Amino acid sequence: MRTVAAVDLGASSGRVVRGVVDDGAVHIEEVHRFPNGPVHLRGTLHWDVPGLYREVLTGLKLAGELDSIGIDSWAVDYGLLDAGGRLLGNPVHYRDSRTDGSTPRDGLYEINGLQFQPFNTMFQLMAEPLLPQASQLLLIPDLLSYWLTGERGAEYTNATTTGLIDVRTGQWSPELTRDLPAGLLPDLRHPGDSAGTYNGVPVTAVGSHDTASAVVAVPAETDRFAYISCGTWSLVGVELSKPVLSPESKAANFTNEGGVDGTIRYLRNVMGLWLLQECLRCWDAELEPLLREARQAEGSVFDPNDPVFLPPGDMPARIQQACGRVMTRAEVVRSVLDSLALAHRDAVNDAQRLSGKEVEVVHIVGGGSHNELLCQLTADACGLPVVAGPAEATALGNVLVQARAVGAAHGTLADLRKLVRESQPLRRYLPRATTSRYA
Ligand code: LFR
């Protein structure tokens, strides 16, 4: 039996989870949860990364005796270090406007296989005033890991979201990193590798991109599955062994991000529950009562991936504008859920068409798996069964990769997924006859 701590930082909350793994079972228990979110500092949107580090230390203390620690977070964002290893400035949030106006570049997709997102690290670096002073860049989980251990590295799954990795070689691309200061990017490390020690406890590299860890814990029975890692974003796609770099894939803005065990996470970013989170913030309201009302409400369909929804702001107004009508709160919520369900369907269909991989089930993991209406609407729209759960897939995937590294779990991703399937409560939604809305 081994006990590990998974530090999992999401865009709206962070948590430290204690995971106990022995032959054939995994149990997790949240020992510390704390809010996370953007902080406006005189016109720039930041993360409070030192504050997050303090919460991580609190959580690790509460976790008790440990055999390993692993850290994951959202992707693309980073801290810069000076030659003495000190942090230069507080890390900037990927929703900051400094990357407004970034456009896709010819020839990039063929090398990095990455979807165009204005916030990809490579575009942030083009707008980075501190770059000339920087000696090294660490992505957020690697930065926290460095503060814990004093050791630096770039975990591979998260590094693939920078846009600077050659998806064909799995290495930093000499071509794409040509204009960056020498030594800026640390050596790569892979999930399962050692990342140093903290107070004598091994720190283990995991799929440090939260989505990579979430995909590890998809409780799939066969490989014919699509997943939706549903939280602030909905990451919708399939698992592949090789990237798809076709012009059609590029046009559909599908990404080939690095997964655990050399897999490719072939997916599209759908705007996700961010739309609802921002509505609730504007209204200062709770989700549950609105979800109950939304069951009966009439929604309108809009494109949730319109970049107008990317920055924080008056989301209810933007949604009503996009739908071309004035709506009640319940109608806004219903419109978000209907529109997300359709965007989920489109991404599941596109993933199959573009990769040639057919699926027979859609797994919804992450916090959004608790949203019964969204799960049902997604099943209806896709015309496929949806298996919902686990909600804490990211923490579980983080725990399992550590457990394997310390010898408490064994085998392939399929073996790790079996552990999840056998130990976590899951809920099944069957597609209902489609309404005209989904024609
Ligand atoms: C999800 C996620 C997505 C990434 C976005 C920005 O939390 O990591 O995979 O595209 O956040 O980093």
Automatic annotation (TrEMBL):
| Carbohydrate kinase FGGY C-terminal domain location | 226-405
The molecular function terms in GO held by this entry are:
transferase activity
Q: What is its EC number?
A: 2.7.1.-
Keyword RNA-binding belongs to the record: no
Q: Which Pfam families match?
A: FGGY_C, FGGY_N
**Record keywords:** ATP-binding, Disulfide bond, Kinase, Nucleotide-binding, Rhamnose metabolism, Transferase
InterPro entries (UniProt xref): ATPase_NBD, FGGY_C, FGGY_N, Rhamnulokinase
Q: What class of enzyme is it?
A: transferase
Per UniProt, residues of the Carbohydrate kinase FGGY N-terminal domain are: 67-200
**Which protein family is named in the record?**
Belongs to the FGGY kinase family.
Q: What is this protein called?
A: Rhamnulokinase family protein
Question: Whose protein is this, by species?
Answer: Lentzea miocenica
